[in-house]
Amino acid sequence: MILLLASALGAAQAAAAAAPDASPTAEAKAFEQRCAGRQFETAIAREVNGKKRLSRIHLCGEAGQTDAQWVATLKDAIAKIEAVPGFSADSKTQAIEAIKDEIVKAGGKVETAPSPDIGVASTDLPAAPVEYSALPPLPAPAPVVAANPAPPIEYSTLPPLPAPKVATSATVAASLPLLAKPQLKIQCFNPADFAAPADCDSLERETVLTVKAAEAVPSGTALRFMRRGDMRAEVDLAQLQRGKAEKIALPREVCAGVVESKVEIQIVRRTSAQSTGQVVDTLGPYLLRC
Predict the structure, then answer these.
(1) Within a 10 A sphere around the Cβ of 209, how many other Cβ atoms?
(2) Which residues pair with 279 in a beta bridge?
(3) How far is CA 214 from CA 195, 241, 264, 265, in A?
(4) Long-range contacts of 13-21 (CB under 8 A, 24+ apart)
(5) Domain final residue pick, 47, 75, 105
(6) What global pTM score does this model have?
(7) Contact 223/266 with Cβ under 8 angstroms?
């Protein structure tokens, strides 16, 4: 079966035609020719009469759509796929995850469900209230009268004091307290490979990072991409709750001007007193292929 989903300005229309899974029907080809806007196509594995079959899903957008309108079209398609009665839960999950990856590539954001294997047990206990008792004031000390009063102190002329030292940004940063490292799990995947996210061993132009929070991520947290010691891009993280995740496409600036290089990912936190940010952790280096 080929499932074609066409959408215009956030409203999706669905059409299905029965045909062999190996090639699209004439109606599917005509649909593709009529599509004047952006297109997205993916394949899902289904089981029909005990045999594995592949079905295609084709999304078509309105001509001249902006990135935001295209993202709205994709999200509307997800809602309609969830309502299709002929798809199993596994088939719907395959299609929806592929569309979410397209949303990330178009600049949108999607939020995944909490991961069951991530949990942080809190051992903080409320502090017992402190009780204070009123004490009488101390008596005033008795004046001390010296038997032989000391002679008056004599002062001599001293050289002028040196000019005060001006604090630099480095000395100010050194005096600020160190910020705690957030508990994050970062994995990589390439949407074209149809593979689940895994630990990063290299980065490519199409790589998408999945950032999972084992604890609440404080505001002012960002990922900084360093290519051979030079900062190429910085992406602010959302204030994720514990167990939530965010998908981030590799910034294009990381691959600008190179075919292969080395990249480190720094986890940066900043407060109102630290506008430049404080590096609390460094991941990598990773092999970069562009």
Answers:
(1) 20
(2) 268
(3) 23, 8, 22, 18
(4) 14/80, 14/84, 16/86, 21/53, 21/54, 21/55
(5) 105
(6) 0.42
(7) yes
Listing DSSP states for 198-259 in one string gives EE-SEEETT-EEEEEESSPPPTTEEEEEEETTEEEEEEEPP-PPTT-EEEEEPPHHHHTT-S
What sign does the dihedral 130-136-137-142 (CA atoms) show? negative
The answer to whether residues 31 and 14 touch, using CB atoms and an 8 Å cutoff, is: no
User: Which of 33-37, 104-108, 233-237 shows the lowest per-residue confidence on average (mean pLDDT)?
Assistant: 33-37
259 pLDDT tier (thresholds 50, 70, 90):
very high
Cα(198)–Cα(188) distance, rounded to whole angstroms? 6
* Rounded-to-integer distance, Cα 121 and Cα 205, Å: 37
- pLDDT tens profile 225-251: 999 999 999 999 988 888 899 999 999
Model pLDDT, residue 223: 92
The reply to whether 123 falls in a domain is: no
User: Same domain for 94 and 191?
Assistant: no
Which CATH number belongs to the domain containing residue 202 in this structure?
A: 2.60.40
Contacts of 53 (CB under 8 A, 6+ apart): 21, 45, 46, 47
| Amino acid identity for residue 225 in this structure | F
241 falls within a domain: yes
Q: Range of 50's domain? A: 2-105
At 173-221, the pLDDT tens digits run 555 678 888 899 999 988 877 778 889 989 999 999 999 998 888 888 9
In contact, 283 and 264? CB cutoff 8 Å: yes
Q: Is the pLDDT of residue 289 over 70?
A: yes
Antiparallel, parallel or unpaired: β 2-8 and 51-60? parallel
Burial of 87 (0-12, 13-18, 19+ CB in 10 A): buried
Q: Considering just the CA atoms, what is the radius of gyration of the chain in Å? A: 31
